[in-house]
Amino acid sequence: MSVPKLEFPPFHLPPEAEALRGEVRAFLEKTLPGVASEDRFPSWNTRSPEFSKALGARGWIGITWPRQYGGAERSFLERYVVTEELLGNGAPAGAHWVADRQSGPLLLRFGSEEQRQAILPRIVKGECYFSIGMSEPDSGSDLASVRTRAEPVPGGFRVNGTKVWTSGAHKNHYCITLVRTSGQHGDRHKGLSQLLVDLKTPGITIRPIINLAGRHDWNEVTFNDAFIPESCLIGNEGDGWLQVTSELAFERSGPERFMQNFYVLRELVRVLGRQPARRASSVLGRLIARLWTLRQMSVAVAGMMQGGKSPAIEAALVKDLGTIYQQDLPEVARAIAESDATTEEDLADFLDVAQYATMMAPSYTIQGGTTQVLRGIVARGLGLR
Amino acid sequence: MDRETRDMLLETADRFFTEKCGREVVNGVEKGVWPADLWKEIEEMGLPLIAVPEDRGGVGGTLVDMLSLMRLAGSHAVPVPLAETALGNLMLAAAGGEPKAGPLTLALGNLSLNGGRVTGKVERVPFASVADRFVTVSGGTLAVIAAGNARIDDAPSHAGEPYGTVTFDGAPTEFSGASPVDAARAYELAALTRAMQMAGAADRVLATAVEYSKQRAQFGRPISTFQAIQHMLAELASCVAATIASAEAAARDADEGGLEAGGSFSIAAAKTQASEFAQRIAAISHQSMGAMGFTHEHVLHHYTRRLWVWRRDFGSETHWGEKIGAAYAKAGPQALWKGLSGSRYAA
């Protein structure tokens, strides 16, 4: 039959990565007790510049980047281990996260030498934070429909338009912004470019968007005749679409796609006590088994990438399953805790944690591609379109 | 065996199963026809002895070679006790026994073994009525019992295979010996074998549903062009991928860790996953193929019904989930991530 085989060859993280895991753990054991437990729950949404700087001082931000920009030139698999240890232990990694995963690699690949030298060493030190300026009102999954215009003017661009869902824009330094530099709204993939925008630029207004959980993570960022110097163009004018899709590849793979609410599972173990009843044990075990499976798949994808392959379908499958897992987890956990928690007090605390996770869960399908977009990628991989 | 040899063997076996193990053979077993020729040829190829050392007349493969073959067998719904015989022979050889010709099966349950005699009852023994011998492990002893010394009450599986309840009433053993594989481990290895068969069957279900969607036209175009069908099959693919990935990871861990105890946690997790996903895989595939897959005329049910049977064999997701959950609860929240990242029961 002509259907492609879905193989996830079992892969071992190499010894140097496992050795690094031990170092990261020792670091976190010393560092994390100083972080309030409510901040340790939502790991990736919790910002701590002090923590980011301490992590940077150990050389664990921009860990794969060239030494000339302050990187450690270590492997992608070593980076993988750092990421999963941060998540597994609830480290407040939100401040530097986008810069490390996405913006830095984008600048490395497409940025000018001047941009790299100005920015990358600051990211590596854990001192420079980024927002993602892709989404716009009404653009949703149809990223090519962006309307924000950057009109060429002497020495740079005059930018007008609105970006939404820009995480942390009220606290970050830069926003890599997708804009239309030429052509019309209907031109789709043509005429798009990316700009490295300093969020303090005059003409930029940042307004909070409060999410379901009552948190202010997101913002609406409005450009009103904001002048952006020519030196802030990333890559070539008109290459924005190519660049932005390569950026999405960084966004789609990795442990953060199934471990963002790992704290729910950890707290569930706590609330069930040391000897839960059979049914509770079984439900807990099934949740653990699923997470183990996701990790095996994700590590296998990392192994394929290390081996020079581009497992786009496999990565999409991991994210799809990871999203479903993260959305199910707080609901399944809530039910089992209500019937099997050891004390009323622990239960009350746990239900608050689970409710918070439930309110965050709708975002998991949106970030890095909706479930439906991912299923479209898989369908293409299966030869259906 | 090295990778190349295994790939060659699997390729040969794949061609053989494609040719000799078609729909009539599988349907025949369901009607009670033992495919004697098929079994004979499987023996001639040495497949039931794949993991038996060469100096005992085997093929000289390892556990993972055997498991890879079982994944392939699962993808063909091979309706003979190849998995049971191959695993039985592997464990028998490890206990110092001489593998014999003929189909074996595994009677793994609460049996007592005293003075060379076996007593007890095991339900849902696969291929009970067609096996020549039963392999059982009690404590640290592995024993082989001839079929004639057991009482067998037929209770065909929901896939139509000759399962049954087996009762031993002081049955004499044909062989007994100290085994490096204890009773719990034998059960684990059987669970792993089923997980690999399930991975194979799941893979075939996906391929069948995808192919069908490209050929079946409705409203003037192939149903594969409908977004609703595409998304359904993509979800099916994710369930299949997880089943394959977890089974393969467990097979690797078991092989690397050694026959006695390797990959205990991974096996429990993989069987939990395979058993849990079986229902989604069956449900989506039947839904995507409509009434075609639901009837006996189509082969889809060869695979979906086996997935439903195999999810229960040697421990369901509830059984294995409970073991995992109990161990992690006992170890406490701080051990959770350490255990998971190390693929261990607890840190």
Give a structural overview.
- The complex is a heterodimer of chains A (385) and B (347).
- In chain A, the strands form two sheets. A four-stranded mixed beta sheet of chain A has the order 1-4-5-8, covered by helices on one side.
- Chain A is 48% helix and 13% strand.
- Chain A has helices at residues 15-31, 37-40, 49-57, 76-88, 97-110, 113-124, 240-252, 262-272, 278-306, 312-340, 344-360, 362-366, 371-381; strands at residues 130-133, 149-153, 156-163, 174-180, 192-198, 204-209, 218-229, 233-234.
- In chain B, the strands form three sheets. In chain B, strands 1-4-5-8 form a four-stranded mixed beta sheet. Chain B has a four-stranded antiparallel beta sheet with strand order 2-3-7-6, with no helix packed on it.
- In chain B, helix 4 packs parallel to helix 6, helix 5 (82-94) runs antiparallel to helix 6 (183-215) and helix 6 (183-215) packs parallel to helix 8.
- Classes of the chains: A alpha+beta (385), B alpha+beta (347).
- Chains A and B meet through helix 4, helix 8, helix 9, helix 10 and helix 13 of A and helix 6, helix 7, helix 8, helix 10 and helix 11 of B.
Low-confidence stretches of chain A: none
General form of chain A? globular
The total strand number of chain A stands at 8
Spatial order of the strands forming the largest sheet of chain A:
1-4-5-8
Largest sheet of chain B: 4 strands, mixed
Would you summarize the structure shown here?
The complex is a heterodimer of chains A (about 375) and B (about 350). Helices cover about 50% and strands about 15% of the residues of chain A. Chain A has about 375 residues and is of the alpha+beta class.
